[in-house]
Amino acid sequence: MFYRPEDGHPFPHNPFNAIVTPRPIGWISTRGTDGTDNLAPYSFFNAVAYVPPQVMFASTSAKPDRDGTKDSVANIRDTGVFCVNIVEAAMKDAMNLTSGSWPREVDEFAHARIAKAACQTIACARVAAAPANLECRLTQIVHLPGEANFAVFGEVTGIHLRDDCLVDGRFDVTRFQPLARMGYRDYAVIREVFELKRPGE
After folding, report:
1. What pLDDT is recorded for position 104?
2. Statement: residue 86 has pLDDT above 90
3. pLDDT at 103 exceeding the cut of 90
4. Ranges for the Flavin reductase like domain (predicted)?
5. Closest CA to 22 of 43, 7, 40, 37
6. Confidence band of 116 (pLDDT split at 50, 70, 90)
């Protein structure tokens, strides 16, 4: 089977998202210039550098009230900061509720009954109970090919780790079981890990 994406595909649903999986979920919190907090999940998300630590996420759709993008990107464009909240399996329903296309004045923390806490290095709220939070300052927003495709890059300026996820000096993901995005409407949970050493180690 071969097809060119520019020609479309012969399937009931686009298989692209199901090919590049599993994808970590960046639960991005931002604050508007009016003080309204926003929280939304993005599965085009990853860490991209160690020193200094940097992350990115991409937004690929738009809302009519946000000038060609969504609340998260619009808020970051205005304020220059955002927080990445790591999603554990136990918070899947709350995360899913925040994925709705709510009006810009809706605080998704309140809407999904998620406790918030203040960030330390930026003026932004974070998910208080998340296994980890990455406070970020914007480094650049890249407009990718496509009408509403924006990649947002940020430098991590503060890291919160939940104490119960630290085991023998390591951040143990099996303690909270990260939620990962698959294709279609599918998700996966990381419950098991294994170690591989690189050649020469």
Report:
1. 85
2. yes
3. no
4. 18-173
5. 43
6. very high
Segment holding 42, helix H or strand E: strand 37-42
Tokens of 64: 């009519």
pTM to 2 decimals? 0.95
Rounded-to-integer distance, Cα 181 and Cα 22, Å: 6
Domains of the chain: 16-189 (2.30.110.10)
Q: CA nearest 152: which of 56, 69, 81?
A: 56
**Given this model, what pLDDT does residue 33 score?**
94
SS3 32: coil
53 in helix, strand or coil?
A: coil
**What pLDDT is recorded for position 133?**
98
| Cα 77 to Cα 58: distance, rounded to the nearest angstrom | 13
153: number of Cβ within 10 Å: 17
DSSP state of 172: -
Label residue 101 by pLDDT band (50, 70, 90). confident
Using omega within 30 degrees of 0 as the cis cutoff, is the peptide bond preceding 52 cis?
A: yes
Is the torsion defined by CA of 98, 103, 104, 109 positive or negative?
Answer: negative
